[in-house]
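Researcher: Structure for this, please.
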Amino acid sequence: MSAESSWDMGGLVPTPEELGIRLCENKWWPKEIKATSGTEKFSSAYDVFGDVDTLFSMLGGNESSAPTERMEIGCYVTIREHTFAQVFGSIASDLDKACVTLNQIKEFARANMQWIVDSNRSFYFLFKYGGKYHIASVTTDPLSPRHLKTLLFRYDDTFVWPYRLVQTYIVPKQ
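Model: Predicted structure, token format:
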């Protein structure tokens, strides 16, 4: 099923309910991303990730960022077919407010490493670089299951993720 045929609603963004998105609010799910200094570089985050997609170096991964404050987050899971744009567009009316920094993604992974490995899930984050939105995923490295890896995706990718892949999206609470 293509993105156009399944969700062409005359420019309307599907609601979270239509996409099968639910907020997970139990005691096991992470609730925050701790403050970051902004001084660490994502593309050399080998203390957290066993594998860092080399494309991050072209999207600010080699740069420092501004320090960030502690941030409350929501963890959303999907149970229907979807694209990245549909999910983030339905969760947040202002995409800029749904973004995190690369340092915040690294901090989330560092603070929740064992939980991510044990859950065997993929976690997706929206970030902005050069005026464009991008998606970073954090998941268990299948070649080294005790380590994490991170991959880069295009926000506007039209690939429709199948419903069988329950995915988790991390978004700042608004």
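Researcher: Any notable elements?
Model: Residues 102-111 form the longest helix (10 residues). DSSP finds five helices and eight strands in the chain.
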